[in-house]
Amino acid sequence: MPFSFSSLSHPHPRPAALPQRLSRTTPLLFLFLLIRHTTAQYHHPHRNVHGDGEGDPPRSLYLISHTDFCLFGPPSPLPSNTSSISQINRDVVSWCTDRRHGNRVVPEGTLNGVTYVKTNSWVQVSGTGDFTKINIPAGDQGAQFDSVGNTPDGAVLYTTDDNQAASWVTMISSTIYCVRACSDAQYCPTVYDEMGCYFFTSNGIGWDGVYQDCVGDEGDPPGVYVDEGGQTVTYTQGGGWPTFSIPARRPPGQLFRQALLARQQGARNRWASRGWAGGRRGEQ
Questions:
Q1: How many domains does the chain divide into?
Q2: Looking at the whole model, is its pTM more than 0.90?
């Protein structure tokens, strides 16, 4: 049962005068007030309690809804001799849409669209925007960060305020982003860092001007598709470009129409578009 002050009250009033118990009651009352004061000072250990995002680099990501999520970006504009987020050796910080997490706040006007999808095995947020506002250089093809081999120091991802994801992948360029957290690691492969968000999300990053929460089916893991011979295979990065048969199966529920729309938009959205929020992993 949740803790409540009412559960501590006595069912019957005590007599007004019990001087013989005063010596016992007073220390207990003092101890109760001390505990209450101490717990009131508690803060989640993964939050920046100062709320300004300017102290030690906060690298916790949150993926909770289309209005509450975080992205990685440089803490300040990159020097003139650095042209990509992939070159800054994972020296990134988290930029969040909700200031309650205490991290840096995504500036107004950065996001052009946000689509959040929740399935039984993974949750994801994706869309487009102007990420020069969080210090990613214009035209930057982007980088991938993940929970396996390209993790910024201290980085974790929460799918609720206190539920830490075991597997996650995030890609971001100057114009496109996607973040996915998985309870089943096969839906969060980290080997497609050069393919980008359109590949990773089955062309389902969302629409500009649309901000939505969706519930869907898992679909196939990224990279799993049916080849021209009708065989289900797993694509290997660097082994030639996949064809438009990807995805052969229906993508997650409410994003089916978006996948069809993306196919109609031609080369700009094609699976094999390097540099659309992927590019390469952050350099070690």
A1: 1
A2: no
